[in-house]
Amino acid sequence: MDRLLSQQEIDNAFKTSNAQAVVDDEPKAEPYDFRRTDRIAKDQLRTIHLLHENFARSMSSSLSAYLRSYVVVNLISVEQLSFLEFTQSLSSPTSLITLGMKPYDGSAVLEINPALVFPIVEMLLGGNGKAPTQLTREVTEIEQSVLEGVLRVILNDLRTAWLPVASIEFSIESQETEPQLLQILAQNEAVVTIGIEVRIGEASGMMNLGIPSIIIKMLRQKFDQHRTVRKSLASGAEQERMLKLVRSAAIHLDVRLPAQKVSVPDLLELREGDILQLDYSSNQPLELIVNGSRKYSGEVIGVAGKRALLVGGAATD
């Protein structure tokens, strides 16, 4: 036979249930990374994204001309990472170029994946640009020297892409092959990373650019000015675009006489040739209807033996 619960046991069960509900309703704490206090604003990230979209388009044309081969360049990502996360995301070994950013005190990092380096070097030396089967070896000093012409093309396009915000002279400071040997920033400092995919014939690979967030913050006022100018230009361009679209549109115009009420018997007796007398004075303004909406008022005049409407101004309520 089942045992009945006492009142004390029932009360204890309810207390336990209520306590559990209170615990479940408490807000949950989220971890905060104090190393990320130097993150930059999303508006600046959007501007950086726009700058490097232009950079990718320009580099596609420049490299195609320099390598005499069809080159496709696409911007893949713009992110904020710690310098440690950035270096850990790179291939090893790879081709790493430390870039000066005069007149600003700091350095950026450009990484060109071996999947791109070896085909480019082969093309520059007269080959067909097909990637070798083994991509794990280090880039030699001779290969780095061969790449310098390509780097000058890339840095020139990068400088041009940044001109709307700031005049930055990107220059080669040093070259490395191992990401862990880079010492331009502390591991916990933030960088803005730009990932770019480059396709040259059958070869494809990534090019990654890392810019210290501290330099981006130095340029905050210039970013704001660029955004303001871009908005005003976009506004003017949008107005011009809309005008081009509506210039060829057909507009329906009507001139409306004042409304007149008639009785139902009079309406039923209307016949062809009947004359309706309207409560309308000849000097009373008429309404000009544009696509069904009252827009202007005017008066009837005679021009070359025809009736016309002399527009007097905007319609009033």
CATH superfamily of the largest domain: CheC-like
Q: CATH architecture of the largest domain, please? A: 3-Layer(aba) Sandwich
Average pLDDT, all residues: 81
Low-confidence stretches: none
Question: What's the alpha carbon Rg, rounded to whole Å?
Answer: 36 Å
Estimated structural class: alpha+beta
Plain-language structure description:
- With about 325 residues, this protein is of the alpha+beta class.
- It folds into two domains: about 200 residues, Chemotaxis protein chec (3-Layer(aba) Sandwich); about 60 residues, SpoA-like (Surface presentation of antigens (SPOA)).
- Helices cover about 40% and strands about 25% of the residues.
- The longest helix has 28 residues.
Quick overview:
By secondary structure, the chain is an alpha+beta fold.
Keywords:
317 residues; 4-stranded antiparallel beta sheet; 10 strands; 39% helix; 6-stranded antiparallel beta sheet; 2 domains; 8 helices; 26% strand; Chemotaxis protein chec; alpha+beta; Surface presentation of antigens (SPOA)
How do the helices and strands line up, and which of them pair or pack?
Layout: H1 7-25, H2 42-67, E1 71-82, H3 83-88, E2 95-102, E3 107-112, H4 114-124, H5 141-162, E4 169-176, E5 190-200, E6 203-212, H6 213-218, H7 220-247, E7 253-256, H8 264-268, E8 286-290, E9 293-303, E10 306-314
Antiparallel strand pairs: 1-5, 2-3, 2-4, 3-6, 5-6, 7-8, 8-9, 9-10
